[in-house]
Amino acid sequence: MSDNKPVIKTDAPAPPGFEGEGFFATQLSSVIGMARKFSLWPLPFATSCCGIEFMATLNPTYDASRFGMERNSFSPRQADMLMVCGTISKKLGPVLKEVYTQMAEPKWVVAVGACASSGGIFDTYSVLQGIDKIIPVDVYVPGCPPRPEQIIEGVMQVQALAESESIRRRDMPEYQHLLDSYNISN
Amino acid sequence: MKDNSLSNILNQYDSKEQIDGQLYTLNLGPTHPATHGIFQNVLTMDGERILHAEQTVGYIHRAFEKISERRNFAQITTLTDRMNYCSAPINNLGWHMTVEKLLGIKVPKRVDYMRVILMELARIGDHLICNGVTGMDAGAITGLTYMFIERERIYDMYEQICGARMTTNMGRIGGFERDFTPKFHELLKDFLKTFPARFAEFGQLLERNRIFMDRTIGAGAISAERALSYGFTGPNLRATGVDYDVRVAQPYSSYEDFDFIIPVGTAGDTYDRFMVRQQEIWESLKIINQAYDNLPEGPFHADVPDFYLPEKADVYNKMEALIYHFKIVMGETDVPKGEVYHAVEGGNGELGFYLVSDGGRTPYRLHFRRPCFIYYQAYPEMITGAVISDAIVTMCSMNIIAGELDA
Amino acid sequence: MTNEFVLEAITREFPESVISSSEPYGMLTVEIKKDDIKKVIHYLKDSTLEINFLTDVCGIHYPETPEKEIGVIYHLHNMMTNFRIRLKIFMTRENVEVDSLTELYAGANWMERETFDFYGIKFKGHPDLRPILNMEDLGYHPMLKEYRLEDGTRTDKNDSMFGR
C-alpha cells in the first residue's frame, strides 16, 4: 500500500489563503484544483451490468449531479473522466483505447466493477483481463456490481486527485513514461 | 427474398452520385448514448433516409456457454444473472426450474408463489427501464428519473431476499434459502399501495403525449408474419398482434392459478411496443396482488437433501446433514443423464435453457436461447427506409440488452 | 397433437430419414439423417402439423463417438397447439456440412452463424456465413471440447497457485 493515497476531505474548507474585506487571495493551483474537482464530466463507457448501477448513481436516489457530474458527455473530446463500467472484451479493446486517446488532458480513468478492474468472473479467451492492460487507470472500484455508494467513493477519490495533482500533469516525465508503456502517444 | 445487400443498393445509384457523396456512411456505435449496450450498426444513408444497416455484435462476448461446462449447477446461477441484468431474478429462477426438471424435483406451492412474486417484480423493473429509456431517447428524460426511484424500491426488496441489488443470484435448486423476512412483507405492501399512482403519472406523461406519439407511431414497424419468421417472442411479438406468452402457453411455477390478460398491439411499431410494456406492468401488478393475497403456508424449499444444502446448525450437530453438505459441495451426488429444454417468459421473450447432462456435476452442454439475439437480426429490416431518429427510437423500444445479445 | 401422432406422420412421409426417436422429459426427440433435415423441417412447416416456429438452433460436440461427433439440434414449436419437437442430426468431423434453413425461417440466419462460430459447422446456402460473436481473427472454433476456456496467451497468472 502506498503512502500517497489521496485524502478525501468531506468538509471542504477553503484552501489556505489571505482574506480581507471583499477579497480572498490564494494560489492559482488551488483554485484550478477546486474548479476541476467540482466539475468532472464523466464519459459513461457503460457496457454491461455495472452500467445499470451507474445509471442508478445518476438518478435521484444517489444523485451524482451534486458532485458536478451533471452533464454526461458521450463525446470524448468534451469529457474529463472516463468511467469504464462493465466487461471489456478483446474485440472492444481497440475501441476503448481509441476513446481514451481522443480525450483531452486532464483526464482520469475509473475502472468501475470487477470486470473492468481485472476481468471479473470471466476468465475466458474472449474477455480482456482488466482495462489496465491497454490504458492507464487512476481509480479501481471493485464490486460485482459495486453499489452506487462505492461508485461515488471512487469519484470522490478522483476528486481528491484532481484537487491535489499538479496543474500540468501532462508535462511530468513519469506521466510521459506511463503513456509510452501503453504505446499511447500524447 | 429481396437482395438487401449493400452492393445491390449501391448499384441503384450511378457512380457519379456516389462520388459526389450523396450516400453517407454513418457509424452508430459500438459506444453510443442511445444503445443499451454495445453493438455496432454501420448505416448507409441517402440524406437522412437509411438504405442499409450492417450490424456487428459480439463486443461483450463472455463465452457463457463455454464457462458453464466448467461450473456446477449452483455456480451457473451467477452466470444467468448477467445475461438480462435488468431482470436478473427471472433468469435465475428459470435456470433453477430447468435443473429441477432434469432432477425431477417438485417444489411446494409456497415456493411457486414466491417465485411468481419475484419474477413479476423483475419484469416490472425491466419494463420500467425500457420505457423510461424510450422516453429519454425521444427527449423526455423526466420519466426515466422518476421511474428509477421505483426501481430502487424493487432493489430494496431483492436485498431482503438474497442480499444483492441487481445481480441477484437468487434462490436455490429446490426453493429459496430463507423465507420472506418481515421487512420484505412491509416493503412489498408499501410498494403495492404507492407504486400504481406514481406509475400512472409516468403514463400520463407519455402515453397520450402528442410529441411522443408523433415520434413513435409508425417507427420501426414489422408485420406479424415477418416477426414469426424471425423468431420474435415477448413484447416485441405481442406488439405485432400475436398473443404468445410462455406463462399462458406452457404455465410453469403455478402461473395457471392467476388471472391476467395478455396485452396485444396491432401495428408492431414503437408506440405499440411501448404501450404493450406499459400494460404488462399493470398486469404484473395484478399478478403480484393475487399471489401475495393467496400466499400459501408451507415450507420454502423442497425436501431434497441431495441437492439443497441443509441448515448450518444441523451441519454442525447432525451426521447426516454433514454428509449431505459434503456431498453437495464436493459434487458427489448423482445427476441423471438426459437432456431437457425449459422456457420461461423473460423480460424480452422466451428465454430457453437447453441442458444436456452426462451424469457429471457440470452440464455437458448448456445452451441459452436468448430472445434479444434472435430478434435483433430483424433490426435492419425494421429501419430500412426510415430516418435516423426513428432508428434510434426503434432500437430503444426493442429493449436490446447487450449482456443477453452476446452471452 | 401427441408425440405418437407426429412421430407417425414423420415416419410415414420420410421412412428412410428417421434414425431413432425418444421422449426425454416429455419432448419428442427425433434423430434425422443429415441430408434430409431441410425436407423434414419444410414438411413440418407446410403440412397440417403446422410446426412453423423455429425456436432455436444449436450445436454439440461428442468427441467420444467419431461417427457422430458433431451434432446440430433444432427446436421447433407449434404455437397454436403448443407442441414442441426436437430434431437432431449428427455428422463426422470431416464432413461438417448441412443445409441452411434461411430460406424457410429468416431467424435461422444468426442462429446458424453462431453455431458456425462455435463449432465450425458449415451451412450450405447461408447468405453470410462468418463468425458473429467471436473475433474474426480468433482462428479456431472455441466450443469444441479440445479447446480450453481460459486464454492460453496470458502471462500474468500463475496456474500452479490456482489448481488448474
From TrEMBL, chain B:
It is found in: Cell membrane. Gene3D superfamilies: Cytochrome-c3 Hydrogenase, chain B (1.10.645.10). It is a peripheral membrane protein. Its main location: membrane. PROSITE patterns: COMPLEX1_49K (PS00535). It comes from the Bacteria. GO terms for cellular component: plasma membrane. One of its GO terms (molecular function) is NADH dehydrogenase (quinone) (non-electrogenic) activity. Its EC number is 7.1.1.-. InterPro entries: NADH_Q_OxRdtase_suD, NADH_UbQ_OxRdtase_49kDa_CS, NDH1_su_D/H, NiFe-Hase_large. Residues 137-406 form the NADH-quinone oxidoreductase subunit D domain. Pfam families: Complex1_49kDa. It catalyses: a quinone + NADH + 5 H(+)(in) = a quinol + NAD(+) + 4 H(+)(out). Transmembrane segments: none annotated. Keywords: Cell membrane, Membrane, NAD, Oxidoreductase, Quinone, Translocase, Transport. Belongs to the complex I 49 kDa subunit family. NDH-1 shuttles electrons from NADH, via FMN and iron-sulfur (Fe-S) centers, to quinones in the respiratory chain. The immediate electron acceptor for the enzyme in this species is believed to be ubiquinone. Couples the redox reaction to proton translocation (for every two electrons transferred, four hydrogen ions are translocated across the cytoplasmic membrane), and thus conserves the redox energy in a proton gradient. NDH-1 is composed of 14 different subunits. Subunits NuoB, C, D, E, F, and G constitute the peripheral sector of the complex. This is NADH-quinone oxidoreductase subunit D.
